[in-house]
Amino acid sequence: MEDKEFDKHLKKAITTEERKIQKAFLRSIETSLKTSKKRFNWQIAASIVILLGFSGYFLLFNQSLSNEELYSKYFSPYENVVEPIVRDQINLSKKAQIFSLYEQGEYEKAIDGFNQLTPQDSIDVATICFYKANSYLQLKQFEKAKALFSQTQNTQEWNQESIWYLALIAIKLDDTDAALIYLKKLQKKNIKNEATKELIKSIN
Length: 204
Fold this sequence. Notes:
- By secondary structure, the chain is mainly α.
- Helices cover 75% and strands 0% of the residues.
- The protein folds into two domains: 1-63; 67-203, Tetratricopeptide repeat domain (Serine Threonine Protein Phosphatase 5, Tetratricopeptide repeat), CATH 1.25.40.10.
- The protein has helices spanning 2-62, 67-74, 94-103, 107-116, 125-138, 142-152, 159-172, 176-189, 193-203.
């Protein structure tokens, strides 16, 4: 009887232990599944973030620029190559004083000065008009600049530079057709080739 009772208790103990082991095993599987699911969800989330990041990058760097932005990107005032100012230079000539104003960004004063210059000041009329036009551009007086560049484009010295600025003015004023005409003229002359190609592509 004692042996039978012992066997009965032993079987019960084994069954209880087996159940504990089974429960522990099931818990481990459940935990593993939850962890895998979390990891899977995290991987999906990370993939979405990366995808959105690339999409944003693509949109940011491939969206077309407005005419205003194109003008700002490509415009820069023409450098003073007529009368470069040397630092601490004294006794400047009349012409040098005016170009010094131009270099310093005093464009209204520079225009007043250009209006006083004549060929007797060792400067030709086309050059005076060209730098006056640049000064007007800086003051955002585009029609005045356009009128002067239209004159200087017919000169040998300032032909190509004037056409370039006329193209930029046309872009600024949203006259795409005129801009393309000017840019294609430059393209034929192989002037500012890369910039010209980029602008033609941007406004076409």
